[in-house]
Structure formats: C-alpha cells, structure tokens
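Sat 14:20. Reprocessing the chain from the morning session after the first attempt stalled halfway. Input below, unchanged.
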Amino acid sequence: QVRLAESGGGLVQPGGSLRLSCAFSGFTLNYYAVSWFRQAPGKEREGVSCISSVGGSTTYARSVEGRFTISGDKANNVVYLQMDNLKPEDTGVYYCATDPPTCNNWSDFRHWGQGTQVTVSS
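Finished this time. Tokens:
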C-alpha cells in the first residue's frame, strides 16, 4: 500500500528557510516520481517541484526556481524539499504525491500525503 507523510512545516520569517520531508512506503524512487504541491488559501493546488525516477531529474515551478531544491534519499525512502529565501506568497499547505514514473504531467499524481502547513510571515 502506498503511503506518504509530510513533515517539517512551520512558521518562518520572510527570507528564512525550511526543509520539508516526505517519508514514503509501498514504492521506490527507482520506478516512481515524487512531487511537491502546495495549496494557498482560496487558491487551487499547484505543482512546486518534482523528482523523476528517470535519472533523478528534477523539475521546478518558475515561482520557486533558484530558491527551492528537491532531493531523494533512496536508502531511507524520503524526499526532501529545501526551501530558501522564503516569501509570504510561499504560504500554504504543502503535499507530496506519487504515481507516475516521470514529472511530465502534474495531473498524473494521484496518491497524496496529508500535508504540512508552511506560513511565511513577519
């Protein structure tokens, strides 16, 4: 059974950093991609970053490129999202998800964790 659990959210000031973790079971990064999504209040959920099973290639939304870094730990079944230089517009609930082997289409991700809240505010 596929399971994903996010952790590491919290309250941080603008310009600060957080590292989110997505601990998973029931699949391996050798065959499945893992993506991070976020949903701000009153807005639709959007794809933030993804790590592919094909060579570990990574994808970033334009709004976070250069500030966020996704990485995978195959030995411990964890995917991280390092978030630096955080902005108030990064506030939202962050989810990790899996299903497809690649990062070609955000809508292909169908297995989700419960989410972790990130709030960027002074």
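The CA atoms of residues 11 and 66 lie 21 Å apart.
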